[in-house]
Recover the amino acids of this structure.
């Protein structure tokens, strides 16, 4: 009896120590430091955090900004250039020195066009690329993904969903369900085909709201793939086809965006391709970090050499291109006031 009591006490103490120890290990893995003072002044309620150390047994460096779009003291906009690209610092000067500038949309180097939806002040500025030619055995086929995006309404409420844009329509279309990658032999993806595809998948889920409808958001930025859904890592690369094959597991500089259940917007940038200082992150690692930060939903934006976030004009991560900041055709802007 005495022996059993001692053993019970030992096991209870061991379990308690285990519960105490495990969270400390997890927290120490990404020990964020508030560096707002180094990048101020910032609007009320906005903060900036940094981390430099080891993550997943590799050198790691990252920053994130957190702010409340519904607070009334923060204005979020998107700016695009026409058939040309400029650096984030160029966007900073062009937009009268806002508090935050970050790269966003994927784009074509050939013609400098954005490949993802961008809506600013309710106006559709850039369209999705919904057609990806097949290769090899699939060379006669075309893949047609819906494109994920984060939308913000006038109240600052946020949502991540999948979008369709048509160049003859003034508003984008949206569905809250990710659909299997649609494939056919036609090099275009019409609105009618997109609607039929969403209805088909909607019947499978038996939820009417999964149909394609107009998305009336004040601000929308597209990217992909989605990284987080319902507070869990949920990467939809198979449906969105942003990265082929094993590229999804490669470590690179990253830019990502998400929001918390409290309605806070999080913008994350991860440095990479900087030997001994920053190895970058895979999409799964990026998603895990966003979950740790409390994101309900989040999506990946253009990364690699494009990744760059400026706070009051100051660089956070070091861009990976040897020339410095890469010129891009779009950026997200945050400024104080409404």
């Amino acid at each position: 009896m005495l022996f059993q009591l001692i053993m019970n006490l030992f096991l209870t103490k061991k379990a308690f120590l285990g519960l105490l120890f495990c969270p400390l290990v997890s927290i120490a893995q990404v020990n964020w430091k508030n560096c707002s003072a180094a990048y101020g002044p910032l609007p009320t309620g906005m903060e900036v955090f940094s981390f430099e150390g080891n993550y997943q047994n590799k050198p790691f460096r990252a920053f994130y900004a957190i702010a409340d779009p519904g607070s009334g003291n923060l204005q979020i906009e998107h700016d695009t250039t026409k058939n040309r690209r400029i650096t984030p610092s160029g966007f900073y000067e062009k937009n009268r020195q806002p508090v935050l500038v970050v790269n966003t949309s994927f784009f074509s180097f050939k013609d400098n066009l954005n490949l993802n939806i961008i809506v600013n002040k309710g106006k559709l500025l850039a369209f999705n690329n919904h057609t990806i030619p097949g290769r090899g055995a699939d060379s006669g086929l075309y893949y047609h993904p819906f494109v994920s995006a984060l939308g913000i309404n006038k109240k600052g409420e946020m949502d991540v969903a999948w979008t369709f844009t048509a160049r003859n329509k003034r508003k984008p279309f949206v569905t809250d369900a990710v659909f299997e990658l649609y494939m056919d032999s036609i090099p275009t993806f019409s609105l009618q085909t997109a609607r039929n595809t969403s209805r088909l998948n909607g019947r499978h889920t038996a939820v009417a709201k999964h149909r394609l409808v107009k998305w009336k958001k004040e601000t929308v930025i597209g990217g992909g793939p989605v990284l987080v859904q319902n507070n869990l890592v949920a990467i939809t690369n198979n449906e969105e086809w942003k990265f082929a094959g094993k590229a999804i597991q490669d470590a690179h500089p990253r830019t990502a965006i998400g929001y918390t259940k409290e309605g806070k917007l999080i913008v994350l940038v991860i440095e990479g391709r900087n030997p001994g200082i920053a190895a970058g992150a895979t999409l799964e690692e990026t998603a895990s970090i966003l979950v740790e930060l409390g994101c309900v939903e989040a999506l990946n934006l253009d990364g690699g050499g494009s990744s760059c976030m400026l706070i009051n004009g100051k660089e956070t991560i070091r861009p990976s291109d040897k020339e410095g900041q890469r010129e891009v055709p779009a950026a997200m802007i945050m400024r104080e006031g409404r």
Notes: The chain has two domains: 1-30, 32-336.
